[in-house]
Amino acid sequence: MKQSHQLPLMGLLLFSLIPSQLCEICEVSEENYIRLKPLLNTMNQSKYTRGTSSSVNVLLSLQLVGIQNQNLKQKLIQQIKYIVKRRQAHNGNPLTNYYQLSLDVLALCLLNGNYSTTKVVNYFIPENKNYYFGSQFSVDTGAMAVLALTCVKRSLIDGQVKTDESNLKNISIYIKSLVEKILSEKKENGLIGNTFSTGEAMQALFVSSDYYHENDWNCQQTLNTVLTEISQGAFSIPIAAAQVLPALMGKTFLDVNKDSSCVSAAGNFSISTQEPITVTTPGSQSSISVNYSVRINETYFANVTVPNGSVFLDVMEKAQKMNDTIFGFTMEESSWGPYITSVQGLWASNNDRTYWELLSGGKPLSQGVGSYVVHDGENVEVRWSKY
Ligand code: B12
Ligand SMILES: *[C@@H]1O[C@H](CO)[C@@H](O)[C@H](O)[C@H]1NC(C)=O
Ligand SMILES: *[C@@H]1O[C@H](CO)[C@@H](O)[C@H](O)[C@H]1NC(C)=O
Ligand SMILES: *[C@@H]1O[C@H](CO)[C@@H](O)[C@H](O)[C@H]1NC(C)=O
Ligand SMILES: *[C@@H]1O[C@H](CO)[C@@H](O)[C@H](O)[C@H]1NC(C)=O
Ligand SMILES: *[C@@H]1O[C@H](CO)[C@@H](O)[C@H](O)[C@H]1NC(C)=O
Ligand SMILES: *[C@@H]1O[C@H](CO)[C@@H](O)[C@H](O)[C@H]1NC(C)=O
Ligand SMILES: *[C@@H]1O[C@H](CO)[C@@H](O)[C@H](O)[C@H]1NC(C)=O
Ligand SMILES: *[C@@H]1O[C@H](CO)[C@@H](O)[C@H](O)[C@H]1NC(C)=O
Ligand SMILES: *[C@@H]1O[C@H](CO)[C@@H](O)[C@H](O)[C@H]1NC(C)=O
Question: Fold for domain 287-386?
Answer without folding.
Answer: Ferric Hydroxamate Uptake Protein; Chain A, domain 1 (2.170.130)
